[in-house]
Structures are given as C-alpha cells and as structure tokens.
Amino acid sequence: MSEESPSNVTEFTVSELASNLKRTIETAYDHVRVRGELGRVTIARSGHMYADIKDEKAVLNTVMWKGSVQRLPFKPEEGLEVVAEGRLSIYAGRSNYQMIADFMRPAGAGALMALLEERKKKFAAEGLFDEGHKKRLPYLPRTVGVVTSPTGAVIRDILHRIRERFPVRVILWPALVQGDTAAAQIEAGIRGFNAMTGEDRPDVLIVGRGGGSIEDLWPFNEENVVRAAFESRIPLISAVGHETDTTLIDYVSDARAPTPTGAAEIAVPVRQDLLIALGELGQSMTHGLSRMVRHDRDRLRAARLPRLETLISQKRQTLDYLESSLRTCLGSAIKSKRIELTRTEARFRPEPLRIDARRKRQQLIDVARRANPAVTRLVKNHSERFASQAKLLETLSYQATLERGFAIVKDADGHVVKNAGTVNAGAHLDIALADGSISAEATGIAKPQSRKAAAKPKTPKPSKPKPEPKTPKDPDAPPQGSLF
C-alpha cells in the first residue's frame, strides 16, 4: 500500500464545521431584512411560529419565537407578502440555514388590502353582509354593553356622550383592541355579553376603538370577530377608527358609527328632546279635544231638539184637570145622596123609620169615609200610570235611542235609509247622532248582521193596576146606587 500524501488542509469534524459555519453566518448576517411571500405557516402548541418566506426562485425557512408572535399586529397567513427582520442562523441538526425573525409586517398596505378584499368577498358570498340579517336597534335601551379598552379615550367619550343625552346603565367588557391577542378578546366580549341573562344583559352592544393604521385595526378584520358579530343576538353597533376607516366588522354589524361618540348618539336618544316632544303632543291633544267639544256643543244647540219637560208638560196638565174633575164629581155625588136621604127621612116619621134612617145615614157616612181613600188610591193609580206612560214615552223617543248609541241615516233626499242594499257606493249620507249630525260617503256595503244580533229588546208594557176587591153584599141590605 502506498503511503498517504502529506496535506496542509485542516481536518474538521461535522460538528466543528457546522459550528464554524453558524458563527460565520450569524456574524455576517446578524441583522437582515427579507421581503417575500409567506408559504407554509405553522403555529406550534408552544406558541412558536414556523414559516417559509419564498419568491420565484428560493425558499427561506423562518422561525419566530412566542414572544415575538404575540406582538404581531396581524395574523400571518399563507400567500401574504411580508417584510421580516431578524438574523440568519444554522440549524445544525439538519444542516440547513434559517432566519430567526424578531419582527414581521405586511409588505405595505397593498398586501393587507388585498387580503381584506379577499375576506370581504368570502364573507359576502356567505351572506354575512345581507341586510336581511341586520337587527333593529332598540329605541330606549336600559343597558348598553361596550367592548373596548378600559384605559383608552373611547370608553370615556362613550360614557360622557350617553350621560349627556340619556343616562342609562353602561357595562364595559375590557379587551385589547390592538395586537395578536386582541381578536380573541374582542370575540370573547361579544359572545360573553350574549351569554348573559337577567337584568344585566345589555339591550345593545358597542364595539369600538380609536383611529389607527390598517395594521392597528386589523383585529376587527379577523374571521372570528366577524363571525361573532354576525351571530350576536343583541343588536351591535361598530365604532372602529375614524369616519374614513373601514373594517369587516362594519359590514356585518347592525349599525355603523363613524366614531365612538357617534355610536353613543345612535344608541340612545336625547332625553330633553323626548320631553319637549311629549309636551307638544299633550298640548296638541288638549287643544284638539277642546275644539271638538266646542264644535259638538254648537251643533247640538243649533239642532234645537225638544226637551223632555216640553214633551210631558201637556200630559201633566191633563192629569191635573182629571184629578180636579174627579174630586168635584165625588163631592157632588155625596151632596146629592145626603139631600135624598133627608127627603126620605122627612116622609117617614115613625120611630122605626128614624132608626133605619139613622142606620142608613151611618152607612152612608161609612161609605163616604171609605170612598175618600178609594179616591186617593184611584188618583195614585192614575198618577203611576201616567208616570209609566211618560217614562215609556221617554224610552221610545228617538232622542233616547240616539243616546244609547244608535244613529239615523238619511240619503241625499232626506229619506231614512232602512236597508244597506238600497245604498250605492259613493252615495252621500247624513248621519244623525245624539250630539249632532255628520256627513259621510258610502264606500261599500258591509255584511249585514244576523237578525238575532240586530233585534232590539222589547220595551215592557206598563203593568195595569189590580182592581179593588169587591165588598160582599149584604143580602138583606137594600140596593144602593153607584157613587160614581
């Protein structure tokens, strides 16, 4: 065997070579900035991110530790063009170089806007932005729920504006509104408010933050936040950024406010305006009722309807005449019988006849005494009958019928309308009511009521006074003439 030729080339072990290369690369490329498209993106259970940054010709393995991942203002996704900053290193276990990234951002606003448009089209295709899914905001909410940062100016502006317009209860759900964990906390706030029950459950939600760049507002474009807002059973108002800022939660929310202050103005009305409006409505109603009462009173006076006293005054006078005539006739009859008795007594002088005459006179006196109550009862019966007839007259009068809710309908010629079938559509009608009359125009014929429902109650007939019981006659007594 030939001896090995001497050489001055240094001999390294694999580990030594890998260590030297690692040291050389980390020294020469201790801070680099690389631009490319994200390929494979994996978030390990430990929180570290492993990704590929590539272009048309090469691929760079990239590692980002958990602390740096949590500070990212956006969620890395495959296909997004980014700019990463960090240092190059070698993973000796596989003999490949990689980039240890400390910071990463989208490659300009254009990349994020492209991703935003892609998500927007996706959600629109699913129907998340349809107007049919949007809920109506309550007019006077009792409780307002707010999902935002507890230390920012947003919550102070909302509280100040609500207190100024219409003080109601406000419940804050504290959440980060910027950073990698902000989307998860915003989603938790929306779903947490919806899970509440009882009086603490808000009637309307406000999700908001102040203005910022598209990277700062990116948590409100994340899919979990958009879907939580869409699935909210409580009406939701988005108030993210300034008026020119637009995020995906603005499209899915039930109402969008240009600013957090504007969200408070949408959520509650102005209490003072409501009080003024209520006062004006009350005054208008009072004036309207007063005008209506005055108008109806004038129409009633113009109708000149006969009064009840006028209708029964003549009957009362007739009753007075009958009572006076009855008393006169009764007195004359008694006087005539007394004269007749005196004459009979003069013709018969014997004592038995005198005794009989005295007895007959006493009977006549008794009859006269009984006749007086009878006359009184007769007058009373006539009075009660007259009162009953007067009450019946009042009940049957058309004015009383009108006061019970009925009306008299006449056509243009002044004829009373009795059947609906005789009225043509468009005919002019005059309707007389208890307090006046109104003019109307027939628009159609309604279905007639059944006869049973339209039947009027019958007026009870006045009861006749019972006749006086007759006194049994003495068979031995002589016949007696009528006192009447």
Descriptive overview:
With 484 residues, the protein is of the alpha/beta class. The chain folds into 4 domains: 14-107, Nucleic acid-binding proteins (OB fold (Dihydrolipoamide Acetyltransferase, E2P)), CATH 2.40.50.140; 115-131 and 140-269, Succinyl-CoA synthetase domains (Rossmann fold, 3-Layer(aba) Sandwich), CATH 3.40.50.261; 308-396; 399-442, no CATH class. Helix content is 45%, strand content 18%. Mean pLDDT is 82; it is low at 469-484.
Any key phrases for this structure?
484 residues; OB fold (Dihydrolipoamide Acetyltransferase, E2P); five-stranded parallel beta sheet; 45% helix; disordered C terminus
Structural topology:
Layout: H1 14-28, E1 32-43, E2 49-54, E3 59-64, H2 66-70, E4 81-91, E5 96-106, H3 109-126, E6 143-148, H4 153-165, E7 169-174, H5 182-195, E8 204-209, H6 223-231, E9 236-240, H7 248-252, E10 255-256, H8 260-267, H9 271-303, H10 308-347, H11 351-396, H12 398-403, E11 408-410, E12 428-433, E13 436-441, H13 451-454
Helix pairs in contact: 4-8, 5-6, 10-11
| Total strands | 13
CATH class of the largest domain: Alpha Beta
- Report mean pLDDT, rounded to a whole number: 82
Architecture per CATH nomenclature, i.e. the level-2 architecture of the largest domain:
3-Layer(aba) Sandwich
Distance between termini? 184 Å
What would you call the structural class? alpha/beta
What fraction, in percent, of the residue positions are helical?
40-55%
Tell the overall outline: rod-shaped
